[in-house]
Amino acid sequence: MDKIYIRDLSVRTLIGTYEWEQEHKQDLIFNIELRSSLREAGIADDLDRTVNYKEVRDKIVKLAEDSSYKLIEALAESTAETCLEFEGIESVKITLDKPGALRYAKSVAVEIERFKQK
Questions:
Q1: Who is most buried in 79, 81, 100, 115, counting CB within 10 A?
Q2: Alpha carbon separation from 81 to 43, 44, 45, 86 (Å, rounded)
Q3: How many domains does the chain have?
Q4: Catalytic residues
């Protein structure tokens, strides 16, 4: 299966279990791997035959900016569901980083992989 990557997508959102985290937006960094067949688009050189990654990015940004989650795990799940709604995407791998979540660590991250149900 072919892959499309959206790397280092930075989004500000309300995330965290502490009260102060739900009052001030924090930066999160998404790294997304979309699996889809790219053969037809590559041969035809036609955007209509592939996954429009700008549209995917726009939906992810809207989801994150318009929501509030306690856990990055929950936001990662919602992001995976959103990606799998797109025609042609068969599976998705998401790494979601929360910079500064732990003292002495650059970030904390989760990685999930989900598949379209047939």
A1: 79
A2: 29, 29, 28, 9
A3: 1
A4: 98
User: Which residue, 31, 24, 98, 20, is CA-closest to 60?
Assistant: 31
User: Which residue has 């592939």 as its token pair?
Assistant: 50
The structure's pTM equals 0.94
- Report the percent of the chain where pLDDT is more than 70: 100
- The pLDDT value given to residue 39: 96
The CATH number of the domain where 42 resides is what? 3.30.1130.10
The arithmetic mean of pLDDT across residues 81-102, rounded, is 97
Q: What domain range is 63 assigned to?
A: 2-115
